[in-house]
Amino acid sequence: MPAGSNKKRQRQYEHIKESAEERGASEKRAKELASRVVNKERARSGEARTSSRTSTRDPRSAYERGGERSHSGSQGPTKDQLYEEARRKNIEGRSSMNKQELRRALGH
Questions:
Q1: Are 56 and 43 in contact (CB under 8 A)?
Q2: Banded pLDDT at 32 (limits 50, 70, 90)
């Protein structure tokens, strides 16, 4: 459990840890995941003494980032995310484009 946490964060930690273990994560991995999530939430809400820039300034979740910053060679945003961006930018022909074509049209 991260040091300096309140009761709400302790409950959150336990819930995340138990969920991860139910999904098959080892106890060590479950504790690590729970600590990371709780620490990030504490940083975002101003409860932590120190926090990284990405914890406090990036409003998008990992899912919304579509693999950005994953450092594992991800394919970047999903086709659905690219399509939504193309729709917002009113790119013609977007409905018949594949992921690669959407990336080119958007300049990714």
A1: yes
A2: very high
Supply the Cα-derived Rg of the chain in whole angstroms. 18
Is the Cα torsion angle 19, 20, 24, 27 positive or negative in sign?
negative
Confidence check: pLDDT of 2 > 90? no
Q: How far is CA 69 from CA 12, 79, 99, 105, in A?
A: 25, 18, 19, 22
DSSP state letters, the chain? --TT--HHHHHHHHHHHHHHHHTT--HHHHHHHHHHHHHHHHHHTT-SSS--HHHHH--S-HHHHTTTT-SS----S-HHHHHHHHHHTT-TTGGG--HHHHHHHHT-
Cα–Cα distance between 74 and 66 in angstroms, integer? 8
